[in-house]
Amino acid sequence: MFITVPRCPQDPWQTRCLFATIPLLLYFFVRNYLRNAANTSESYFKVVPLKEDFDSTKQMASHPQYLESFLRTQHYILYMDGPLPVHYRHYIAIMAAARHHCRYLVSLHSAQFLLADGDPLWLQGLEAAPLRLQHLDHINKVLAHQPWLTARSHIQALLKTGEQCWSLAELVQAVVLLAHCHSLCSFVFGSGSDSDTTPTPRVHHGTPPAYCLCDAANGNTALSFIFTQGPFLVYISLPHGPSFVTCFLFLKCISVSDVEEEDEAMFSADPSRFVTDPEFGYQEFARREEDHFQVFRVQDYSWEDHGFSLVNRLYSDIGHLLDERFRNVASLPFPHSPDLKRAIWNYIHCIYGIRYDDYDYGEVNRLLERGLKLYIKAVACYPDSSKTPLCPLSWAPVKASDKVHVNLLVMEARLQAELLYALRAITQYMIA
Q1: How wide is the angle at C-alpha 147 spanned by C-alphas 279 and 136, nearest 5°?
Q2: Annotated catalytic sites, by residue?
Q3: Is residue 4 in some structural domain?
């Protein structure tokens, strides 16, 4: 299935007519397609309100192989076969993004929630959601800020709460989704995509833009683009052999009489509606006085030897997709030494209480200057644009060309850290 965007005519009047037609047709086509075939494996479409998803994905596109694995994993988690219904998945994503007050992701998944026929009343706040989702709030809070607190008792409580209990397969999918969205908040924050003060460029002369970015996955990001006020980004991915062909079309947000009020209301989604205990946040693991919070030793429980097999058994194929992401980010070309990349990864795990017995942590202090360490900690542990940052991100001693790579390392290292804590707790529950 292909959608071709014709070359713009030279005549301005013809251009306006062309752009007036394409958004209208695609708006209704994509809307109906999402409602009726969101789970199809042949092709899939996502409607994304606001421009920032393209901003973040455009940065990832400088590493096309990684981008492909990221998109494949995200699509599988949100839309493909799994025990949770699609609208539940988007609501869980809202809960995860809200912990970091990521307005962009909250708005994005609010839109997707409605398109998946979710009850708009749930968007009034967490207390309006079913009890099963409310019960997930505690593990969401812990994984987002202090994942080392994740315990077998949390898993047991979710699996044994009467009529509102979760199945083990459902819980594993929910945990993967929470960790994915928490870590994505870090990337969005590090890339500056969630800044409330970022102006939205307008289109000159009111011409709605439309173009095809089919070569984004090939690393060609030298493209000019403009935005309308309140655009819809329609993301189209078509499997092509072993890889994905990705296209992006920007559509002007049109006013039509049959657009439900809830579809418009979600743009003002307030993350605080979905947050309990807002004061709960990251604390320095290394400075905690409680002796019972022991260091997580990778030699005792690792992704390769334990986490991968468990998650793949309880949530089919997701282990392979996640492992591909970890491998791709590890193999990204880095202008600096491989030792620096490993130091960044191990430092992120260290601030989350995870240690490698075979690594000399003196390398972290030797290779990472203080400004870079502050930047990494801010993006990994405090990705909240509504609060004063640990350090101004613009002060980070990182070149613009290197920042994307560092942000990807932060996102993937944080994702793996959360998964390790959650999967270890699930393992402890299963063998108890």
Answers
A1: 75
A2: 102
A3: no
- Residue finishing a domain among 249, 274, 299: 274
Q: Per the structure block, which two tokens stand in for 254? A: 């049109």
Mean pLDDT of the chain: 75
CB burial of 252-268 (b: ≥16 within 10 Å; e: otherwise) equals bbeeeeeeeebbeebee
Residues 188, 321 within the same domain: no
Instruction: Please report whether residue 189 resides in a domain.
Output: yes
Same domain, residue pair 250 and 292: no
Do residues 208 and 304 both lie within one domain?
no
- Span 126-154, pLDDT tens digits: 999 999 999 999 999 999 999 999 999 99
Residues 265 and 290 in one domain: no
Given a cut of 60, whether residue 2 has pLDDT beyond it is no
Q: Does residue 279 fall inside a structural domain?
A: no
* Structural domain for 405, as ranges: 285-431
Distances, alpha carbon 372 to alpha carbons 6, 199, 343, 395, in Å = 45, 27, 11, 9
Domain count, the chain: 2
Say if residues 226 and 21 touch (Cβ distance below 8 Å).
no
The bridge status of strand 296-297 relative to strand 354-355 is: parallel
Name 234's bridge partners: 47, 249
Using pLDDT thresholds of 50, 70 and 90, give the confidence band for residue 213: very low
In angstroms, the first-to-last Cα distance of the chain is 50
pLDDT of residue 385: 72
β pairing state of 232-240 and 44-49: antiparallel
On whether both 242 and 388 belong to a single domain, the answer is no
**CA nearest neighbour of 354 among 424, 408, 296:** 296
Specify whether the CB–CB gap between 76 and 237 falls below 8 A.
no
pTM for the model stands at 0.75
Number of residues in the chain: 432
Residue 6 inside a domain? The answer is no
| Residues 67 and 131 both lie in one domain | yes
Q: Are residues 132 and 191 in the same domain?
A: yes
